[in-house]
Amino acid sequence: MFLRPLLLVLLGTQTISCVSAADAAKPNIIVILADDVGFGDLGCYGATLVKTHALDRLAAEGCRFTDAHSPAATCTPTRRALLTGGYSWRQEAGSSIAPGDAPITIQPGTVTLPSLLKQAGYRTGIVGKWHLGLGGQGGPDWNGEIKPSPLDIGFDSSFIMAATGDRVPCVFIDQRRVANLDPADPITVSYKNKIGTDPTGAENPELLKLKHTLGHDRTIVNGVGRIGWMSGGKAARWRDEDMADTFAAQAIKFLETPGDAPFFLLFTPHGIHVPRVPNERFVGSSPLGARGDAIQELDDTVSRVLAAVEKKGQSANTLVIFTSDNGGVWDDGYADHGPQGTHRINGALRGTKGTLFEGGHRVPFIARWPGKIKPGTESSALISSVDFPATFAALTNVPLPADAAPDSFNILPALTGESTTARTSAFFHVGGTQGPLALRMGSWKYIQAGRGGSGKAAAPDAGDAPKPKLYDLGKDPAETHDLAAELPDKLREMAAFTQAARAGSRTRP
Ligand code: CA
User: Assuming Cys at both sites, which of 52, 107, 155, 262 could form a disulfide with 150, CB separation 3.0 to 4.6 Å?
Assistant: First the structure.
């Protein structure tokens, strides 16, 4: 240690050295949160029928985690947990899949991942899918200023879609306003009754270019039936085929914004959520139909975003994390999947998005940080994306208030490979404040009785819902042998731990 000041004086570059020391402590951070990408969907996780060159390269240059999880098996609760560091079953707002016109589910003033990083001096931005509600109690004003929004919970910039591609309104929101909105053609949205005169999937199926298999038969936009009805906003409506390109361009725009501050980008592509309508460049690019094509389109998006970082010479000082908001699902309401072949969306795991089996919440998780994370490594540490706030607060030396991020653990040592372990337990959730929870402790997995809000997508493998279940993932990663009846003491222990967590207000120290 005593050599360092001497070295600095000798080199005569004290100022420069201090700057690089500060940079090293505060790397740029890009979190890419993909949608509905399953544990087996990427080449680096065993897929052979789809090609994911950029993500495979990211894994080869960093660490691939094999026991990483989304805190919920569906979108909204995972995203809320990722941003707030609290499990989403703790409060009503954001505990289940939000309608497209829901009010904001994270109140301004809440300590969030971006607010912590802003405090650390970061320029913070979000590009992509939001799905956490917008506006006050009555929901967003689509034709005016949209507030509260991501801009009120810690993001300096925001280019988002309100909910999902299968929900109205089918428009992008740039900062506080719907992009390309003609004031003479205002937007109206309803999730209760039909409004306006636009054709619907139920009434005009002949106008659909994509058949729906579960619901999705309300207002038709760009030949696709959606959940909910909308009218107006014709000039602002998206073309699904251009969505990935639009979000990629906005992410790159954020990355190319000049400035000296380190940046945090939460990039949340829509891929590969339904409707899977990839750009014409990708149609037929995989042997698996639209779902496979959408994976390859997502990989291309990642490749372009990483190339923009590289072009700015920032790769060496940028921590990039890629993960998914829940497990994979084949049929989620449209005929947009294609042949399955030998492709296993969730690898050897049981269950899908919307279930509490591993296929619902064990997800791909890749982290690259040159010089800090050894290339080509693999980690079996138990981690969850609810851990981002505590981890990035630790990384950037921002104190985490005692009542903030109540379920977020600092997993930095596992992220950098200093430690081979992280959490000793973790909860996973589906559907509302009373929906069932699953608990991991060591290799044990406990699933409470009840189907929760898993929806139709999960129905084929919702399991024996009336009874709690117990598995030893060390011996039985595919959850085929329920040990609940054989090991009543272990079942009771895990049930008690779960009840205590529900009754309490935090799980972190
Ligand atoms: Ca999702």
Answer: 155
Distance 119 CA to ligand 1 centre (A): 29
Q: How far does residue 293's CA lie from ligand 1's centre (Å)? A: 18
* pLDDT values of the chain reduced to their tens digit, one per residue, 509 residues: 333 433 333 333 333 333 444 455 799 999 999 999 999 999 999 999 999 999 999 999 999 999 999 999 999 999 999 999 999 999 999 999 999 999 999 999 999 999 999 999 999 999 999 999 999 999 999 999 999 999 999 999 999 999 999 999 999 999 999 999 999 999 999 999 999 999 999 999 999 999 998 779 999 999 999 999 999 999 999 999 999 999 999 999 999 999 999 999 999 999 999 999 999 999 999 999 999 999 999 999 999 999 999 999 999 999 999 999 999 999 999 999 999 999 999 999 999 999 999 999 999 999 999 999 999 999 999 999 999 999 999 999 999 999 999 999 999 999 999 999 999 999 999 988 988 999 999 999 999 987 654 444 444 455 556 789 999 999 999 999 999 999 999 999 999 999 999 999 999 98
The residue type of 100 is G
Spacing, Cα 326 to ligand 1 middle (Å): 5
How far does the centroid of ligand 1 lie from the alpha carbon of residue 11, in Å? 51
Q: Mention every residue, 6+ apart, whose C-beta is less than 8 A from residue 144.
A: 177
Burial 240-253 (b: 16+ CB within 10 A, else e): bbebbbbbbbbbbe
What separation in Å is there between the alpha carbon of 79 and the centre of ligand 1?
A: 9
pTM of the model: 0.94
Cis previous bond, 411, omega within 30: no
Cα of 273 from ligand 1 centre, angstroms: 6
Phi, psi of 178 (to 5 degrees): -60, 125
Shared-domain flag, residues 315 and 338: yes
Closest CA to 325 of 299, 358, 364: 364
Asked if residue 53 is part of any domain, the answer here is: yes
The CA 317 to ligand 1 mean position distance, Å, reads: 29
- 166 & 223 share domain: no
- Cα 276 to ligand 1 centroid, rounded to whole Å: 13
Nearest alpha-carbon partner for 168 in 142, 145, 205, 197? 142
Distance 159 CA to ligand 1 centre (A): 18
Residues 6 or more apart whose Cβ sits within 8 Å of residue 259: 123
Ligand 1 mean position, distance from CA 362 (Å): 13
Query: In terms of residue numbers, what domain contains 460?
Result: 426-503
Within a domain: 508: no
Distance 272 CA to ligand 1 centre (A): 8
Domain count, the chain: 3
Dihedral sign for Cα atoms in the order 86, 430, 326, 465? positive
Q: Is residue 122 part of a domain?
A: yes
